[in-house]
Write a sequence for this structure.
C-alpha cells in the first residue's frame, strides 16, 4: 500500500524558514492523519503562489498548547503572541516535525498547476489526489523514486 502525500500550504516566510532549516516544526490546529516518512509538498501561498519544496514527516506530536510551546518554540519560527493568537480556542496543538527538506530547482507556480484544470491549493493542508495536475503528480513520483519508494 502506498502512502498518501501531504500538500501543506504555508505563508512564504514559514516556507522559507523550513527550506533554510531554521523552522523544523510546523504547527497546525487540526489533526493530520499521516505516518512517519510521509512525503510533504510545501506550497508557499501569496504572493509566491508556488510549490517550492518537499520534506518528509518525521513525526506528528499532539500536545496541549502550553506544553507544545515550552518544548518546541525554538523550532516553530513564531513569536509567542503569534503562537497564542493562532491556537486561541484550540485545546490541542498538532506539531509536524519535518526532515529531509529539499528546495525545488524551479518552483512549480500556481498558473502552471492550473493549466491542466481546476487545481486549488489548500487553505491548510490536503492530500494529493489522482485528479491533481500532472506536474504535481510527477513531483510526487520523482521524489518517491529518488527515495527508493519509501
Amino acid at each position: 500500500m502506498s502512502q498518501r502525500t501531504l500538500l501543506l500550504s504555508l505563508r512564504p516566510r514559514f516556507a522559507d524558514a523550513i527550506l533554510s532549516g531554521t523552522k523544523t516544526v510546523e504547527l497546525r490546529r487540526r489533526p493530520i492523519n499521516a505516518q512517519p516518512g510521509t512525503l510533504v509538498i510545501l506550497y508557499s501561498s501569496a504572493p509566491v503562489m508556488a510549490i517550492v519544496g518537499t520534506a518528509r514527516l518525521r513525526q506528528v506530536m499532539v500536545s496541549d498548547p502550553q506544553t507544545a510551546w515550552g518544548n518546541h518554540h525554538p523550532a516553530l519560527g513564531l513569536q509567542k503572541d503569534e503562537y497564542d493568537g493562532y491556537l486561541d480556542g484550540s485545546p490541542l496543538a498538532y506539531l509536524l516535525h519535518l526532515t529531509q527538506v529539499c528546495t525545488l530547482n524551479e518552483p512549480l507556480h500556481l498558473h502552471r498547476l492550473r493549466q491542466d484544470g481546476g487545481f486549488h491549493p489548500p487553505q491548510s493542508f490536503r492530500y494529493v489526489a489522482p485528479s491533481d495536475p500532472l506536474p504535481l503528480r510527477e513531483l510526487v513520483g520523482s521524489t518517491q523514486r529518488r527515495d527508493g519508494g519509501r
